[in-house]
Amino acid sequence: MLPRIVLCDALLWSQPEAEQLFKGIADVKTVHDSTSRSDFVASLQPGGALEGAIGLYRRTDSPGPLRYFDKQLIDALPPSVKWIASFGAGYDQVDVAACKERGIRVSNTPNMVDDATATTALYLLISALRCFSKAERDIRAGAWKSQHWPGPAHDVTGRTIAILGLGGIGLRFAELVHAFPMRVLYHSRRRVAHAPEWCEYYGPDRLDEMLAQADVLSVHVPLTEQTASIVDEKMIRKLKRGAVIVNTARGGVIDEDAMMKALEDGHLSAVGLDVFCNEPNINPRWFSLPNATLLPHVGTATSDTRKKMELRALENLRDFITTGMGNDLVFEFK
Ligand SMILES: O=CC(=O)O
């Protein structure tokens, strides 16, 4: 009998490749969209249609009831499950500590998302500095350029950007903005050995110094217990008056109320956001803030990148089945 794996979300981009990938090595089952969490858990138990599953595939942006692999769901999984292959770089919807307790390994798809997410950050940066989103809203409203135009628009070239977190996405973004050129500063707990020499490192003892110089702060850290609201009121107020914040990471890494307040009182001149607290039911106050460029979490949403992410997640599962170990184990397992 072939080892069984379960796709908790339908494959959208790589169905034919997946068939080849698992041909003769795994029995692949797909959970139907309408399956509830309790039906899912029940079907994994002895006698259920998914009995004996050793690996699960899930999507970070799953539209179904299996979006959150929280402790309750993980504790209810049978002992046969040994690997969860998550599609997406962020895995804050998976309770990794609960997985560790149960001996379940978790993989994500980090490098696949770098270019598309960095490109999204670049769009938000340009739109925020040049007030392009506002201009588009004007023309669509029949106002041509509203009376406030050009408002606080600024050139991109020559400005200073501070990058919080120089992982794969932060590094790709640094390369893109360096082309203008912008002056590029970065902060992370440790200096990144492969960072280009034009990327200036500001360690934990020099964070305030970095913030004071930045025209733009762009956030590229994962959401964890340690990074929740890491960009808080104090940090925002340490930026220069008129600075811009760009966020393509997770809404929860910034104190949203503090960011809105700073935008309203002019401490921030603009923001560019792809991610929010409580997606998709985001705070409606965002809609009335003219200097906010808003996107509905589409950082990786290109068919090319989505296909790469899907395939990589499946390859991690395939490698686990064939060798006992997949790639892209999340940080907590390293
Ligand atoms: O948000 C997208 C991802 O985590 O890959």
TrEMBL record:
PANTHER family: 2-HYDROXYACID DEHYDROGENASE-RELATED (PTHR10996), GLYOXYLATE REDUCTASE 1 (PTHR10996:SF257). SUPFAM superfamilies: Formate/glycerate dehydrogenase catalytic domain-like, NAD(P)-binding Rossmann-fold domains. Residues 60-324 form the D-isomer specific 2-hydroxyacid dehydrogenase catalytic domain. It comes from Wolfiporia cocos (strain MD-104). Residues 123-299 form the D-isomer specific 2-hydroxyacid dehydrogenase NAD-binding domain. Pfam families: 2-Hacid_dh (PF00389), 2-Hacid_dh_C (PF02826). This is D-isomer specific 2-hydroxyacid dehydrogenase. Keywords: Oxidoreductase. One of its GO terms (molecular function) is hydroxypyruvate reductase [NAD(P)H] activity. InterPro entries: D-isomer_2-hydroxyacid_DH, D-isomer_2_OHA_DH_cat_dom, D-isomer_DH_CS, D-isomer_DH_CS1, D-isomer_DH_NAD-bd, NAD(P)-bd_dom_sf. One of its GO terms (cellular component) is cytosol. Belongs to the D-isomer specific 2-hydroxyacid dehydrogenase family.
